[in-house]
Amino acid sequence: MSSIVTLNNGLKMPLVGLGCWKIPNAVCADQVYNAIKLGYRLFDGATDYGNEVEVGQGIKRAIDEKIVTRADLFIVSKLWNSFHRPDHVKENITRNLKDLGLDYVDLYYIHFPIAFKHVPMTEKYPPGFYSGAEAQAKGVILTEKVPLIDTYRAMESLVDEGLIKSIGISNYNGGLVQDCLNYARIKPVCLQVEHHPYLTQRNLMDYCKLHQIQVVAYSSFGPQSYVELQSELAIETVPLFEHATIKKIAAAHGVSTSQVLLRWATQQGIAIIPKSSKQERLVENLTVEKALTLTAEELKEINALNINLRFNNPWDWMGMKFPIFA
User: Where in the sequence is the active site (predicted)?
Assistant: First the structure.
């Protein structure tokens, strides 16, 4: 198992987990089950990933075989953009729990600070970027005027009801984090954001540390996560796995470049949720803290790779302009 961090509500969370984004449904249950056998305890899922039924099947199998108990696991899901209205927040978590086969999740994020028009589950689930047949025909996304404070208050009610243990925020910029802290009755425990050497977001990391909000990194390998999505930005960018600085540091420690990237994050206290279908890579990721310790100079070299390059940017979703990071 990885090391454990204590969140601001006292809950214990592994620093290394398995991200469930893009795990195919056909193999998801087995991958989750096998990851639990290898020692993984944190599983980061979401409404939008469309594989929570299979994630739940993998969890159930491991619990039924007494490999773990529910209390041993830290299960994460996320509220999708189409369910931001307060009367729809509980609808979303209820479906998450049903699909996962659980009574509660340990951490529930607001996936993006963007409110899409609500889509009934009978029409499409998960809805993704769909916001109605008319909108789809026009190639646009319909939105609703829902202030984030209203969505957050509904999330707090989920904690009160015991459906979630803690609240997370995701893809928030610094101003939105600060605003959230101004109105939160129950403080968010985590901020999940894109984070890699091309996008270090140093001020945001420091601000979260100052306010005891645990940062969780996604896309730790930078463009690698987006090449398969045919992102021109990712395809034209030097992969971090092949960057001369990362390769030099990996060779000095006798480890893989992926381990250098992950250790760079965890050594700064940032949690990681890398995905892999290969058992040897899963073990490498889980034990990265034991594999190497970067020197202060090496950390400085990697930090210097920052060019504020963001791959997951809602600014141009289906031609819409969502200025979260503008």
Answer: 49
- pLDDT tens for each residue of 283-308: 999 999 999 999 999 999 999 999 99
Structure tokens given for 171 = 């893809």
Q: What is the largest CA-CA distance in the chain?
A: 57
Contact partners, residue 67, CB within 8 Å, separation at least 6 = 36, 37
Q: Which two tokens stand for residue 324?
A: 């979260």
- Label residue 299 exposed, middle or buried (CB < 10 Å: 0-12, 13-18, 19+): middle
pLDDT tens digit string along 16-45?
999 999 999 999 999 999 999 999 999 999
Q: Which residues contact 3 (CB under 8 A, 6 or more apart)?
A: 14, 15, 16, 266, 289
| Residue of 49, 130, 152, 226 with catalytic role | 49
Rounded to an integer, what distance in angstroms lies between the CA atom of residue 229 and that of residue 69?
Answer: 36
Question: Per the annotation, does 196 bind a ligand?
Answer: no
Active site residue 49: yes
**pTM of the shown model:** 0.97
> Around 141, how many Cα atoms within 13 Å sit in the side-chain half-sphere?
21
Q: Give 182: exposed, middle or buried? Use CB within 10 Å, 0-12, 13-18, 19+.
A: exposed
Residue ranges of domains in the chain, CATH in brackets: 4-319 (3.20.20.100)
Q: Which residue has 């990721």 as its token pair? A: 285
Task: State how beta strands 271-272 and 214-218 pair.
Answer: parallel
Q: What is the DSSP letter of 201?
A: -
Q: C-alpha 3: how far from its chain's center?
A: 18
